Amino acid sequence: MRTPWGRRPNGGQDNPDNPDESALQSHTVNREADEESSTKPPRRLRVPLGRASRRRPGSAPRVITPALGTFGPVKPSRRTYATGFMGVCALSGALVAGIALPVVGTGAMTAKHFAQDFQALPSDLETRPPAQASVLLASDGTRIATFFDENRVNVPLDHIAPIMKQAILAIEDYRFYEHGGIDLKGTARAFVNNRGDNSTQGGSTLTQQYVKNLLIQLSDGDPDKIAAARAHTVKRKVQELKYALEIEKKMPKDQILDNYLNISYFGSGSYGIEAASRHYFSKSSNNLTLTEASLLAGIVRSPSAYDPIQHPDAAKDRRDVVLNRMRELNYITVDQLNKAKAEDLGLRPSANSNGCTTSPVPFFCDYITHVILNDPVFGQSEQERADLLSRGGLTIRTTLDMKAQRATDQAIQDKTDPTDKVAAALASVEPGTGKIRAMGVSREYGTGKGKTVINYATDYAYGGSRGFQDGSTHKVFTTAAALAEGYGSEYKIDSPYSIGGFHADRNCQGKRVPADGWHPKNFTDDQTNGVFGVITMREGLRRSVNSFFAQMEQKVGLCDVVQMATAAGIHRADGKPQHEFLPYTLGINEVSPLTVADSYATMAARGVHCDPIAIESMIGRDGKPLPVPSANCKQAIDPKVADATVDIMRSVMENGGYGFKMDLNDNRQAGGKTGTTNNNIAVWYSGITPQLATSVWVGNPDDYNYKMGDMTIGGTFYHLVVGSKVPGPIWKEMMDAALAGAPKLQFHPADAATLHGTQGSGDSGTGKMTYKYSDLALPKIGDSGDTSVKVKSSKKSKKNAAPTDTTASTPVTTQSKQR
Q1: Is the pTM of this model over 0.85?
Q2: C-alpha to C-alpha distances, 243 to 185, 247, 250, 484, 778, nearest whole angstrom
Q3: CA–CA separation, 189 vs 216, rounded Å?
Q4: Alpha-carbon distance 122 to 752, whole Å?
Q5: Any residues with CB less than 8 A from the CB of 235 and at least 6 apart, and which?
Q6: Per-residue pLDDT tens over the stretch 301-330
Q7: pLDDT tens digits for 27-67?
Q8: Which of 30, 131, 210, 720 is the most exposed place for a label (fewest CB within 10 A)?
Q9: Under the phi-then-psi rule, with left for phi > 0, alpha for psi from -120 to 50, and beta for the rest, what region is 141?
Q10: Bridge partner residues of 658 (DSSP)
Q11: Where do the H-state alpha helices sit in 304-438?
């Protein structure tokens, strides 16, 4: 399957300098020989209806005006068609009689039969547009990538400089506007000169060249069809003549010239005049000068031999041949000729960037390619979808916010290094729409040290990894499930350092899930030594208390927590069913940052879940919109439950919470959650504002048992790597920069009754609380439309303390200690 944008060994670049006929690339085939440089003396051949090819005395081609479309017949007369048809029949007979059957003296009879056979040849030829490059744009229109099998940008004829049209006609077919698709003079001379041997001399008109190029385009890479279009046989040549006549009947001359200039190969991977102009001169074809136009016109005959970058001397000689011919036809003056020949080639080459390797946002670009390859909306088969992207001339506007993306790249760069032992990945989603606004990975895109082509920010099916355990970020979903079942934000549970005695539960398939002696432990910090005592659910989330949420999951039920997480958008990165075991609440499933960001966005959007989308619109080559994947937004969680969950998440980022140091600038409302798996193998920070939901992961993608401690990341030494250390600061820097200048929106006020709950107050007693709340558990202060009570921090909390958090996320196949 052709996927030039992805992971080719050569970095996604086509081979631009190999027009070898053995190649399966559909390089344009041009004239077999240059009429002007033929060394064979012409031999006369008497042709019926010779007047059709007789040149009027003193007549000059009428293609000499600056506005090329104003001269010559728009459509040749019927007599021209008749002349062309009868002439080709005569020539075909002569070809067979004089070349194929030189010994038999029945040439006239053979010509007659051949003329009859010629009429029976197919004449209908599909004239679909040639393959064009597709362009990938950010949401603001910034070009971020180009995809092509053939680097081509179609332009209308009136966009092309008149001097370019004159140059190509002068050297390729100066009688183009006079003949009906077949130049009897040139064709007859080629037939005569080829009579004595097996060689072929070019006599092709511009229309015939267009036919040949079109047949190669229609082959869609089929090697047999390409070989047939290039074959030096009588059968192919005669069929080409028949097609040329039919095209001249149906298509105006200007349109044929337009199509020819857009389909021809100009070497160095450039197809069509616009791509060639941009590549060699870094300008559009409507601004070409005489010397530039003559250079490009000369390339067409042999794109490899006359490549001005690889063979500048040969290209200059060929350019001068074109200039001389233009002077002979009075297209230019002597002064123009001399001045142009005195100039150098004037090259200002631009790279033909193809695919994601050269994109400024390679991982997001790679994600887009997988979206297109995976979704049937873009074609029935994967090959059809690949062809649509690389040949369809699409304009794809994505959801990428360049401001958020620049903030992402800078934050990752400031806190990590591509060659670090560990990597970081970030994904950001807009709540309520599912639009992916930013995506980044700390390693460079490619192969080698400090590089990767695996997008750690997304799922395996979209070019990502098989995911990473999300640790305590998963406690948000247990919180939401508890709120949905009437457990208020101030519901209390005694939370010791370690706890066991759990009973068996049932998963969502109704199967019994044994406890197997599960005995989770809390993280030990300087203030608590892992012993919290009787604390509220709000305090449990603020300080990520494992023993609290293990017990809360038992009260709510394992399946209820799984269903809440699934409704929010959680799924495994490898596409397999989630593991449903008792430690589920502590984040045992491998997920991607994009999935976590998407599920948190559901909470920020008041329970509305949207599938992540990366494409806003797609326009075909005809200017018409094409269908794109939908976000399928729907109300997945009770809005009151989502609002209350956000209210508690906001507490995490207040004084004493493990996300305190990630509090955003300018008092912008935000909520978040740290996540650290067992042995600090994966660390996370995920958080929300009304405008953005962003998740950051840090870990070793090459070793899922790598413990992060006593190590340097981004030039900074860390004794212990936790969610509030590396990923947290990345999240804060990115969000502050991405939202700078944006409106400071507020979350919807939480429903007081939902926060209060219906399950009572829970366990009695006191614990190590850092957060005090009113007995009525009213919404937080600062939200519009509520009568809240101002929050005060306890005296035990330190002003600038930023406690850390380590979550117990155990492989589901083994039993291990949690902390």
Answers
A1: no
A2: 19, 6, 11, 72, 81
A3: 26
A4: 79
A5: none
A6: 999 999 999 999 999 999 999 999 999 999
A7: 333 433 333 333 333 333 333 223 333 343 333 333 333 33
A8: 720
A9: left
A10: none
A11: 312-328, 334-342, 362-374, 382-391, 402-415
